Amino acid sequence: MIKGNFVFHNNVEIPKIGFGTWQIPNDEAYDSVTMALKNGYTHIDTALAYKNEENVGKAIKEFDIAREDVFITSKLPAQTKGFDETLAAFNETITNLGVDYLDLYLIHAPWPWDEKGKDCTEGNIQSWKAMEQLYNEGKIRAIGVSNFEVKDLQAIIDNCDIIPMVNQIPFYVGRDQEELLEFCKKHNIVVEAYSPLATGELLDHSDIKKMAEKYDVTPAQLLIRYCLERETLPLPKSTHEERIIQNKQVDFKISDEDLKELKGFEDIRK
After folding, report:
1. Of the residues 30, 41, 50, 105, which is catalytic?
2. According to the model, what pLDDT value does residue 112 have?
3. Where is the NADP-dependent oxidoreductase domain (predicted)?
4. Which domain covers residue 218, as residue numbers?
5. Contact yes or no for 164/156 (Cβ under 8 A)
């Protein structure tokens, strides 16, 4: 089982593996989060857009764990831009979750999902300033972004007071986003890897299966370990207890040679 934390540039610590809840419906979220907590996950990732915050919050509240011992992340919807709009969305999120504060709050994307690539720089800056205010008021312990590219991050760095602590991006074998990774490292921004299994599409890849057998692990364990070896924080999700347990059992090393091979993979989802 993986122990230890990543540390943000404000010294807040975050557990090295998170439990993702994207695509888990609200009616299944309670059981899934309860299973995750039962099996040692203390970092739960949700979002207002997932429409499951209510049952994520209920599961955490009803589980025998102190609020300060669980790290909760949620996200500002991608289409919500602006100062007051951000404050209102944040209040909706903490009401849904039934908590007084968040450990991490992220701008879900630099543009609305149905207008991918749209320039929302000014809106993002205003949203970020609202998040800085919430952070300074102690309502959020850390603030960050998701799906931001270098230019989006640079706009925040140039126009705001606080550098994002996190950038949560799609990151998996075949999609390493090297330039973005390097930029984040340079600015002390922790990269969180969502879809570490390429939403399941890499699990049946013959080369992945072969390498996993060599280490006597599952393909999922190999893919999650790869993210950790690349110093990113994986957010695997599952609604099956056996897999929830396995996804955390990644305390092995991938050899330099195999790491190099995995780095050379083509993105199968292009």
Report:
1. 50
2. 97
3. 16-265
4. 5-263
5. yes
pLDDT digits (tens, 9 = 90+) for 130-188: 999 999 999 999 999 999 999 999 999 999 999 999 999 999 999 999 999 999 999 99
Biggest alpha carbon distance in the chain? Answer: 53
d(CA 50, CA 106): 14
CATH number at residue 111: 3.20.20.100
State how many domains the chain has.
1
Position 268 in a domain: no
Cα end-to-end distance, the chain, whole Å: 33
Q: Is 215 a catalytic residue?
A: no
Q: What pTM did the predictor assign?
A: 0.96
Rounded CA gap, 191 and 182, in Å?
A: 10
268, pLDDT greater than 80: no
pLDDT cut 90: percent of the chain above it: 96
Query: What distance in Å separates the CA atoms of residue 153 and residue 147, rounded to the nearest whole number?
Result: 10
Q: Which pLDDT score, from 0 to 100, does residue 267 have?
A: 76
Q: Is 108 known to sit in a ligand binding site?
A: yes
- Tell me, yes or no, whether 269 lies in a domain: no
Give percent helix, percent strand, percent coil of the chain, each to the nearest 5.
Answer: 45, 15, 40
Whether residue 270 is contained in a domain is answered as no
